[in-house]
Amino acid sequence: MLTRANLINADGGPMEGSSRPVIASGLRFHLAEGRIREFLIGESLYGDPALAVREAYQNALDAWRLLIARQKLLGVPPDIGSAQDPVIEFHQGTSDDGRAYIDCVDRGAGMGLVELAGSFCHAGVRASDLDERAREIEMFAAADPPVEFWQNSLFGIGVLSYFMVASEISVRTARLNSDGTIGNLLAMHIPGPAEEFDIVDLGPSTSCGTHVRLWLKPSAEVSAVSTLRKLVVVCPVTLSAIDDRGPQHLWLPDELNRASTPTPPPPPYAQVAIPGELWWIAPGFPGAVVVDGIWVGQWFKGVIVNLRGPLAPRLTADRRSIIDLRTSVVSTLAERSAAEAVEHCWSVVGDTAWLSSMSELMPRVADAVVEAASSRADRTLSIHGTAVDIRISGFMSGDEGVATSGAPGEVIDWRFARLQLAGQFPKLRTRLPTRRVVPARPSDAVLLGSSHHQLSPKLNPKESLRWSSSTSLLYEAERHLAYPLADIVERAKQLCLPTRDDAHLLPPSTELVRTALSFSDRWRPDGSFKPLAVFDVIRTSWELDVPIARITEELGERFIETQSFDRETAMLTSAELVCASAGTNGIAPWSATSEELGLDHIVRAARAAGITCAQAIEILNALGFDATPDLTFPDHLPSDDDIVMLSRDLDGQPPFLSAAVAYRTAHVRRAARELGYSESEARERFKTYGVTFSPTGVEPPLDSVSEKAALRRLPVPVHEFSRVRPRHLRMISRDADGQQPWLDPTLPVPAWMVAVHARGKRSIDEVISDYRWLGFTVDDPRITSIRPTPGPPDV
């Protein structure tokens, strides 16, 4: 039997120096030229034969860039063409003898014998690989100032793609030499990808450039106009495409092509930030990331950005999608243009929907826009039809609406104070606070737990996130915002958020720290703070291949709280791997230690690992998964019905009931009705898991009950329900939309909610009267104190 021991030496290496007879020698890998050629010209690489047209366009663009670089070195001004004289032209038609073709003509640098023989006809060799071109590129870099030059070619195989649609190719080209002279006109006709062909010297030429004709296969169904129209979002030169059958299109330099796949909007909804590179896109219209002007399937928000040259990301082999988009590159370009955007494009970037969207995607860009606008007296935000002075209010996501988004009450009160002083609530007489109200920045949402980075959708009304003085939150903010840690500490102090006294002395973050913090949130589903879990440390060790000791050392130096553990290695047992994996199969993807693992996950993990549910929970708790069902488990595994009845919303999903709490009897009736049991049978099944009920037990949270259930909790007599109007439902909903989550009738209605409902025709007194009729106590916004910061004012 052939085993591993037969294949390696005792040292673990391959067998060498054996006295056994050598039966073959001098072997090496070879390429099957014919099959490789078929692969490179077939649809298996590019997928769409029409992309041959894209390759021709990008080769023509490379030729123009080389021309411009040579002319700059010679002191000749660049030519980007005109509508009457494009730099690149495509023409699709039929020859006199009835053969279909596509012409690509460019006024670029052209090719000489060296380029034609050494690169154009040599698959796998780029023009930049040639010795002459390499020396020329060095000359560009050494010039004073340096001449910018880059090309699209990655592998030197693009020309072969022409044969996806062409049976033959004809080429005519004349080269602009480095000294400014023009070489002879050269021609060649390539009868097929594997056929021999000659290069013919046609004598002196008066202009440089290249004419490529693709003689189309009879079976080819391709439209040059349609392909380019979809793919070329922006072109740095004048480009035209004409089809004798009728369609045609013209691209003017650095102007967005509204017919391209991302369908850029017209002005004023798309406004130029950096010509040819960046456009601000109004809310409601799609943005995109394109690479050297070409659509690569990457949608975006708020901007269209053209990444080219050294900023271009890596693409797949077929150049149809981005491998590693670095949002920071886009953010840096946009940040630099923020002041001009405020000056010239305020109708787009000053829209609160745009600012809110940008706050989540690229908060530093939103920060830069708000900062630039706050330095001017002529820029205001329009919120619910009222002009708001951005110098006083600043802006943070959520200011534009009514929804609380689960933000802490202190944050909402601070928002109310900012907007009130900035003119949002004209019915309120503005009172000057004893301390200056700190204007908001979009990135404050990360610090305050009001952003998508930290906010859990499972929060109950009374379980909003709170700031913690833990240094891990400072490093979390650094990870998301990429601001220096010192700046984040300073901002936390401005917002009166408690921090360590020596926070300004904390060491900067590292890749290890950012990685360790990236696997889960710092907040549990119930809104309480969560130290870094054992499993997060283990995953960091896996990810970076570093020992546990080094991870705990770097975290300890930064006072980042971690779950106590005594592991020295990142090795896990098979049962631990099964329990921690999202699919309970022992392999990635892994569950986040901050998420609530449902009873269904526990059952699947116990079944897969051959253990009990109690043992599975014990394993998960030891790894730092502490949001697990708090139940008493019998010896047998829970059934599907058990999982449904033990879930709070009877859907089999988190959150689940707890054995530590007594619930209202109504849940038993609902579960029995849902699953077809008698109430006594349902109660007995609940008892198996330690869940108890009583008439005065805990009710379902107000964010999960119907309109009728919410109204029944109010002290409004049943016979008065006929007086309830849609506005009353809006008044008792936390987001003022008439839907759950609902206000808690045991707590006072906050002042900002009263002010929100008085923004229309109704007076503050009328709104307060309605709330009192509904049984609420009310904080009157006319006498409520102003909150200058989200943190305690005495910090």
Task: Explain this structure.
- There is one protein chain.
- The protein is an alpha+beta fold.
- 34% of the residues lie in helices and 11% in strands.
- A hairpin with a 4-residue loop joins β7 and β8.
- The chain is globular, with a radius of gyration of 34 Å.
- The termini are far apart.
- The relative contact order is 0.06.
- The percent range for helix content is 25-40%
What is the number of helices? 30
Q: What's the N-to-C terminus distance?
A: 75 Å
Shape: globular
**Strand percentage, roughly?**
5-15%
Alpha carbon gyration radius: 34 Å
Spatial strand order of the main sheet: 5-4-3-6-2-1-7-8
Low-confidence parts, pLDDT < 50 over ≥5 residues? 1-15, 452-465
User: What class do helices, strands and sheet pairing give?
Assistant: alpha+beta
Largest sheet composition = 8 strands, mixed
β-strand number: 17
Mean pLDDT: 87
